[in-house]
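Entry for the shared binder. Reason: the reviewer on the internal report wants the predicted structure included alongside the sequence.
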Amino acid sequence: MVTILLWAGAMLMTAAVRMQAQEWKTYAIAEAPAELRPVIKRGDMAIITLQNAVLSELTREFRRGGPGVAIRSCHLDVTAAAQRIARQEGIAAGRTSSRLRNPLNAPRPWAAPVVQKYAGHRAAGIDGFAVDLGDRVGVMRPILQRTMCSGCHGPADELSPLVRAELQDRYPVDRATGFRDGDLRGWFWVEVPKKQ
């Protein structure tokens, strides 16, 4: 019940933000102005650190006990890793998607237009985006659906009974299944201050 209330609250918040959406200048990373590049580089380093922490943790847990064990790790450890890295770097960081598993990962208002535009796309050719937020820069990099992710994010009818049970228990309104290798599953994002 709590998860459903969180989901509903996140969706209402997202809808309210879209209604009063601010216009932020969004750039493909390769086309970002020179003055934003040092900030983007700092954001990329934080995203790489977050991505490596996620992959390391999930790979270890996957080897230890398969997708059923890895999903438990993703539920707790990946969120903790994002929070730890954000604190260390003095930034905000996280993951988001158009098909959420955890409603608390709803897109930030500045990221929502990019998430919506690329929903359902293949990841090939999508490098990332920088969004000028005034005193900060939002940086987004795609999360590619990989073979190792299919045990928890693949087609629902191909998930193991253990994974389906874990998803139902932890995320009763889960929408983050049905992906195929190469799909754009979501985004790592960071907000980095322009001044260090």
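Summary line for the report: The two ends are 42 Å apart (CA to CA).
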